[in-house]
Amino acid sequence: IRQQHRHPGAFGMSDMYLICRLSPFSYHIDFCTQECLRCEWFDLAELAKTGETTPITSRVAKLLLYGLENGFHNIDLTMEQLPAVYTGLFYQLYHRRLPE
């Protein structure tokens, strides 16, 4: 879980970044069209290696892949500072270190 109240943030509001390690009953996504333009499932391995995402999303995808392969007890908790989409601002992400 990551929560931020520093502004500017996405849409000028506070934001939260939540990761839930759950399995879906269905892969159908029923979403609110007033709040979202689209929703889709991503392949975790593809998400981890794409350059088309933010640094925090890329790191979380790599952590989840490592947890799936080696146990989630190996990825929780240390702090890493990553650049935000806003110049000069940073996120703090808490996890265990990935092996070099």
TrEMBL record:
Gene3D superfamilies: 4.10.80.100, Nucleoside Triphosphate Pyrophosphohydrolase (3.90.79.10). SUPFAM superfamilies: Nudix. InterPro entries: NUDIX_hydrolase-like_dom_sf, Nudix_hydrolase6-like. This is Nucleoside diphosphate-linked moiety X motif 6.
